[in-house]
Design a protein that fits this description.
With 562 residues, the chain is of the alpha/beta class. The protein folds into three domains: 110 residues, Phosphohistidine domain (Glucose Oxidase, domain 1, 3-Layer(bba) Sandwich); 101 residues, PtsI, HPr-binding domain (Enzyme I, Chain A, domain 2), CATH 1.10.274.10; 319 residues, Phosphoenolpyruvate-binding domains (TIM Barrel, Alpha-Beta Barrel), CATH 3.20.20. The chain is 46% helix and 14% strand. It contains 23 helices and 15 strands. Strands 14-13-12-11-10-9-8-15 form an eight-stranded parallel beta sheet. It has a seven-stranded mixed beta sheet with strand order 1-7-6-2-3-4-5. β3, α6 and β4 form a beta-alpha-beta unit. The longest helix is centred in the middle third of the chain and has 25 residues. The structure holds phosphoenolpyruvate and magnesium ion (MG). The site of phosphoenolpyruvate has 10 residues, from β9 and α17.
């Protein structure tokens, strides 16, 4: 028995299984020079491999967005033209030409420090490796030589393509020589609750193919060829760990007297959804779709691009809900390709739902993409910046028009999809009772609600001292919205920052809020607070609190009573 002690795990858990060593170069490159007659044959062989590799990657796009980037690389003329030129002008066989092209492309990235571009280098290598496999007609499945059901995959590094084809039911752990906790293998491991250590360096040499391994990333050690007694004790440790983690998740989102509070996460990317999954959130209560639009400089993403993006988000959420807020562009979130007319007061300008309704074609594309993705998960649609019932109804009508189109085109979507309203303007607060008759749910956006209620620019440091959600106008508004939702039997959540304010949360629960959506990193503070409060005692001081007329009185009262 041998032990390797390590410092940091990429994914927490305990896994037991047989070491399966993945060789770095899975296919040897046959570098050969060819004759004139062979040029056509080699060019055709390369083009066929390119096509096959493309088909294989297309099937993986659903799994991870990284494969969309791989498709782009594969379809880029630079790669194709360079390989064909080396075959036809330099008399190199397809493998040789591809290998050289890949090395040249990778070298271009060598001197660059930028993290994002470094990742692109790994992507190019990954795509070239895949085409080389296709050239040799080799199966890409790493585990093809093993029948074992409990495998610890050990490798120098693992590319996204390699990880994507693994049968993760059989993989009980990952160990790699290189890579960091943000590398693809680490992310996949965390998403699937598979323990992992990455960046082992030379310590990896101690592991030989077929060794029995215990990977314990709770106590940061790998045990090689342990005795039966040790194996049994770790099996028990694993059983207890996984049972406790489940119990912990349930316990953490409860108050001291056992009231379950639904805690969803606010997210802007797939990465954040994965993080939220890992931390045990109940779903995504606010998916800020506009960030996908803001990452681009040229034009609006088309339906297909958006569909792929939302579908992956839905798949990641599994059965948990994913509330996609329709793009809240404008105000503090402009996109360069749209807002070329200068607005002197963009926060009061063409933003949120009013922008969407003025761009019917763009909005329709957006809604169709979201609806199509709804066939893959538990999606709900939420409209931002609502100020009138007419706006909500108009937006809803567009959703229904898109549904009708999809039905006629035989495209699947969730026919029972719910649409809700963000309550983030004073007008929406005042008509909350009316809105609650049309909307399936509310989410209170206190960031904007504070800005508009108190007439303070939320990003202006000169007035930040005035931007205080503990203002009586805000607390009374929040209570009014919660009551309106309850009176009409619809769900109400809060996705503004106030929901994770530790001083505010007991008050919000006292007002009857039982669902919040918060930043992924706020979870510990929020769950600690929840578990220290008795839900059924929080209500009793609310009436008195809401009678206070200054921020100072309110804060003093909360400090005293909560
Ligand atoms: C809000 O306004 O409270 C909100 C959650 O939306 P955003 O911060 O994206 O405007
Ligand atoms: Mg807002």
């Amino acid at each position: 028995m041998l032990k390797i002690k390590l410092n940091l795990a990429a994914s927490i858990g305990i896994g037991l299984g047989t070491a399966y060593l993945v060789k770095q170069k899975t296919v040897a490159i046959d570098k050969a020079l060819i004759t004139g007659q062979q040029k056509k044959e080699e060019s055709d062989r390369f083009l066929k491999a390119l096509k096959n590799a493309g088909e294989a990657i297309k099937n993986l796009v659903e799994l991870d967005q990284i494969f969309s980037a791989h498709l782009e690389i594969l379809n880029d003329d630079i790669l194709k033209d360079s390989v064909l030129s080396k075959i036809n002008k330099e008399n190199k066989n397809a493998e040789y030409a591809l290998y050289e092209t890949c090395s040249e492309l990778v070298r271009m990235f060598d001197s660059i420090e930028d993290e994002y571009l470094k990742e692109r280098k790994a992507d190019i290598k990954d795509v070239c490796e895949r085409i080389i496999h296709a050239l040799s007609n080799k199966n890409y499945d790493l585990l093809q030589n093993s029948r074992d059901d409990n495998i610890i995959v050990v490798a120098d590094e693992l590319s996204p393509s390699q990880v994507a084809v693994l049968d993760l039911n059989r993989v009980k752990g990952f160990i790699t020589r290189t890579g960091g906790i943000t590398s693809h293998v680490s992310i996949i491991a965390r998403n699937n609750n598979i323990p992992a250590f990455v960046g082992l360096g030379d310590k990896l040499e101690k592991i030989k193919p077929g060794d029995f391994l215990i990977l314990d990333s709770i106590d940061n050690e790998i045990i090689i060829n342990p005795s039966h007694t040790v194996i049994n004790s770790f099996k028990n440790k694993a059983k207890k760990y996984y049972k406790d983690t489940e119990a912990q998740k349930n316990y953490l989102s409860q108050t001291a007297d056992g009231k379950k509070i639904i805690i969803c996460a606010n997210a802007e990317s797939h990465e954040e959804i994965k993080l939220a999954n890992q931390k045990g959130f109940d779903g995504i209560g606010l998916f800020r779709s506009e960030f996908f639009f803001m990452q681009r400089e040229d034009t609006f993403p088309d339906e297909e691009e958006q569909f792929n993006f939302y579908r992956e988000a839905a798949i990641l959420c599994n059965t948990r809900k994913l509330v996609i807020r329709t793009f809240d562009i404008g105000g503090d979130k402009p996109v360069s390709y749209l807002l070329n007319q200068k607005e002197s007061n963009p926060f009061m300008g063409l933003r949120g739902i009013r922008l969407s309704l003025s761009l019917k074609k763009v909005f329709k594309t957006h809604l169709r993409a979201i609806l199509r993705a709804s066939a893959f998960g538990n999606i709900k649609i939420m409209f931002p910046m609502i100020v009138s019932l007419e706006e909500f109804i108009a937006a809803n009508q567009m959703v229904h028009a898109c549904m009708e189109e999809l039905t006629n085109e035989n495209i699947p979507y969730d026919k029972n999809i719910e649409t809700g309203a963000m309550i983030e303007t004073p007008a929406a607060v005042m008509i909350a009772e009316d809105l609650a008759k049309e909307a399936a749910f509310f989410s209170i956006g206190t960031n904007d609600l504070t800005q508009y209620m108190l007439a303070v620019d939320r990003g202006n440091p000169l007035v930040s001292h005035i931007c205080d959600t503990f203002h009586p106008a805000l607390l009374r508004s929040i209570k009014k919205v919660i009551d309106a939702a309850k009176n009409n039997g619809i769900n109400v959540s809060m996705c503004g920052e106030f929901a994770s304010n530790i001083k505010a949360l007991p008050v919000l629960l006292g007002m009857g809020l039982t669902e919040i959506s918060i930043g992924v990193n706020e979870i510990n503070a929020v769950t600690n607070m929840l578990s220290s409060k008795k839900y059924y005692e929080l209500e009793k001081n609310i009436d008195e609190l809401l009678k206070k007329s200054t921020i100072g009185e309110i804060k003093d009262f909360i400090n005293l009573m909560y």
